Amino acid sequence: NADIAMYRAKESGRNNFQFYTAAMNERLLERLRIESDLRNALERNEFVLHYQPQIDLETGRTVGMEALIRWQHPSLGMIPPLRFIGLAEETGLIVPIGEWVLRTACAQAAAWQRAGLGPLRVGVNLSARQFAQHDLVNVIAGTLQETGLAPHLLELELTESLVMTDVDRAIGLLGELKALGVQLSLDDFGTGHSSLSYLKRLPIDALKIDQSFVRDITLTPDDAAIVASIISLAHNLRRHVIAEGVETHEQLIYLQNHGCNEMQGYYFSKPVPPDVFERLLRQDTRTPASTN
Ligand code: C2E
Ligand code: MG
Ligand code: MG
Ligand code: MG
Questions:
Q1: 186 has pLDDT over 50
Q2: Considering only Cβ atoms within 10 Å of each terminal Cβ, which end of the chain, N or C, has fewer?
Q3: Are 207 and 230 in contact (CB under 8 A)?
Q4: For the EAL domain, which residue ranges apply (predicted)?
């Protein structure tokens, strides 16, 4: 009967609609919950930094590490940065969170150096909001002074989009940061749209090749060519190169053969809590990179 079929279609349509809104509500609720929890996470001490080693491809030694934030949510468990950094950006909470990251990472690097495990450079990711703060240079100078970390052991990781949004301002600001003596790197290099003419003018010390290119270097000739080109471009501009996302021995060999300076990736270690990182450092006399 056509009437019944019509009625059923309407009914199920309505159910679909209700189902849809229920799913949307749930997502919205989770977002609201995360947002309100995020406001209290700093004072409740729920953030932790994990560290991922950066290996010198010539010596096989750990020369630095990247500090990567995680949120230990009391009921949702460990939340990775990509699930809350965007929200922290939108709400402005990234500014105090970012300052906490900077202070904690610098204090940790200074402590490892005092313990005879350094000197190790520590990389800290800067967000767009932080980059837009007027007092960024003062905050960084103050943090270095407070923690006693030598400025050249702090590496600020910036993305291309962050720098390219307002190149003239960025060039001025990066110059001020360089005057403090810190290192600067361009993160996720190759995924944004930095123009080569600006690249030449930016006082950047290193390019971090994005993991999307590294992933397929031993499978896709185009990715291999892109990686080799980024390395020679960087070297011709007297920049250092770090490959991200190195997961296999073959990738490591390719990078080594093409003169890449450093690598970071699961092949060597995932980002790990400070106590585990410290154990890695204490064993760091032989490393996968030096078995070549
Ligand atoms: P990123 O700065 O490009 O960091 C590298 C990301 O790649 C990390 O993800 C790291 O765990 C992952 N990774 C490293 N080696 C490998 C590998 O061999 N294979 C694969 N598949 N992945 C690898 P994570 O920790 O989830 O961080 C994601 C992003 O969140 C970071 O990307 C960064 O943009 C942002 N982030 C992390 N911590 C902070 C922070 O303190 N402040 C800000 N503003 N952003 C942060
Ligand atoms: Mg980074
Ligand atoms: Mg990256
Ligand atoms: Mg990234």
A1: yes
A2: N
A3: yes
A4: 31-285
Phi, psi of 233 (to 5 degrees): -55, -50
Residue-averaged pLDDT of the chain: 89
Does the beta carbon of 85 sit less than 6 angstroms from any atom of ligand 1? yes
From residue 203, how far is each of 133, 170, 206, 230 by CA, in Å?
Answer: 19, 10, 9, 17
The finding on whether 271 has its CB within 6 A of some atom of ligand 1 is yes
ipTM exceeds 0.90, yes or no: yes
Calculate how far, in angstroms, residue 68's C-alpha sits from the geometric centre of ligand 2.
8
Smallest CA-to-CA distance from 97 within 129, 134, 121 is with 129
Tokens of 66: 């990247």
Decide if 87 contacts 118 (C-beta within 8 A). Answer: no
64 Cβ closer than 6 Å to some ligand 1 atom = no
The pTM assigned to this predicted structure is 0.90
Give the three-state DSSP class for 259: coil
Residue 155: phi, psi to the nearest 5? -115, 120
- Give the residue whose CA is nearest to atom 17 of ligand 1: 245
Which distant-in-sequence residues (6+ apart) come within 8 Å of 222 by Cβ? none
Beta strand 47-56 pairing with 262-264: antiparallel
